[in-house]
Amino acid sequence: MNRHEQERIAEVLRQALPPVDVNAAPDRDLWPEMLRRLDEPAPLAFGLLNRPWFDWALLAALAGFAAAFPSSIPTFLYYL
Predict the structure, then answer these.
(1) What is the tens place of the pLDDT at every residue in 48-65?
(2) Does 74 fall in a domain?
């Protein structure tokens, strides 16, 4: 990439991304919302039971495949 291309890319990026004000403050105070989230009860088992049906279907397919081909279990464990 030559110097002209680098300058062109830099110019396009300057146009696409506005400058960030480092002294800008949030529009509102975030601490009350953080305290509210900390006071909420934790989901049961970190949400493991609240998964979509296709996650359970994939897990069942994986278990079936592992039951049919037990030699594939080390491969599955490797890719975890």
Answers:
(1) 677 788 988 999 999 999
(2) yes
